[in-house]
Design brief:
The complex is a heterodimer of chains A (110) and B (113). By secondary structure, chain A is mainly β. Helices cover 0% and strands 55% of the residues of chain A. In chain A, a hairpin with a 6-residue loop joins β9 and β10. Classes of the chains: A mainly beta (110), B mainly beta (113).
Chain lengths: 110, 113
């Protein structure tokens, strides 16, 4: 099955700086790569996703890049704000079955 | 539009006791998932429903876990008997596109003493 590794496990950034989270996957047939944000006591919420037919996607301060050859994808958050503090999960799938990474706890320092 | 609703939010039971979790998905979403989330980990799929049919239950420990989705809407996940290792958050999600966005509920946190 698919194996997704996520790094780093924790990330502390100064407000206004950028945050980058990296994930690798094992199944070359995976074609869908979403990122979820989970706040304390809440369920995960989709923030951005990318499909394998594109290499990059951007939505305001959030961007995701995909390198199919190397089988890795990354989340970039620019101009971080305190409300960006949360746990972020990457995931990969080739059908409905998402395999999630272990998560990155992001703390934005004011 | 209401999101995915789960209950109870928190449940504390002693080992060997039964427990049940309920989920009401977003209206019109035919696909429903139950995920298990251990502390410090990402969600892991337990079971997936298409309408009332369980189309993937390969990760569900069938000796103690059971699930149903009557009439293809609400779903119930049951554990009997519960073990200490079952302490976790049980997340329900629904979607209307595969693969596509999963809409998660807030989860049911189980503590087994």
């Amino acid at each position: 099955g698919e194996n997704v590794e996520q790094h780093p496990s924790t990330l502390s950034v100064q407000e206004g700086d950028s945050a980058v989270i990296k994930c690798t996957y094992s199944d070359s047939a995976s074609n869908y790569f979403p990122w979820y944000k989970q706040e304390l006591g809440k369920g995960p919420q989709l923030i951005i996703d990318i499909r394998s037919n594109v290499g990059e996607k951007k939505d305001q301060r959030i961007a995701v890049t995909l390198n199919k050859t190397a089988k890795h994808f990354s989340l970039h958050i620019t101009e971080t704000q305190p409300e960006d503090s949360a746990v972020y999960f990457c995931a990969a799938s080739r059908s409905y079955k998402l395999s999630f990474g272990a998560g990155t706890t992001v703390t934005v320092r004011a | 539009e209401a999101g995915v609703v789960q209950s109870p939010r928190y449940k504390i039971i002693e080992k060997k006791q039964p427990v049940a979790f309920w989920c009401n998905p977003i209206s019109g979403h035919n696909t429903l998932y139950w995920y298990l989330q251990n502390l410090g980990q990402g969600p892991e799929l337990l079971i997936r429903y298409e309408n009332e049919e369980a189309v993937d239950d390969s990760q569900l420990p069938k000796d103690r876990f059971s699930a149903e989705r009557l009439k293809g809407v609400d779903s119930t996940l049951k554990i009997q008997p519960a073990e200490l290792g079952d302490s976790a958050v049980y997340l329900c999600a629904s979607s209307n596109r595969d693969p596509g966005e999963l809409f998660f509920g807030e989860g049911s946190r189980l503590t087994v003493l």
